Amino acid sequence: MEAEYLTIVIIALATIGLYLFTKYRKNILFKTQDIADDLEDLVEDATGIDIEISDAVDEVVEDALKIVEQVLEDAKDDGVVSMDVYSMTVKTLRSTLKEQGLSAKGNKAQLIERLVGDSSE
User: Which of 5, 13, 89, 119 has its CA 20 to 30 A from that of 32?
Assistant: First the structure.
């Protein structure tokens, strides 16, 4: 029951997140650029060293936004956040199964089958 509640909460948050993300994406990018510029100015004022971190910040923010967008799209399309179970370790698979109240016994193939089978119901 707890896993079902958690899934519903994740779906609701993902839906809200997708809406906010699409609405405020440009604002997020501009705000991070402003923060990077302010940080560059502070470092230069304090040390006299002219640094450029804007490109690095832009790259990190873009990568993070792409990941967020993909996760939110998965949640929207599938109704749940998709998991790449095939790349998960046996330890992670077992932990995930235990969280869902399922048996964590067996080899990796059996664990994946149990996890995939449960998420499709």
Answer: 13
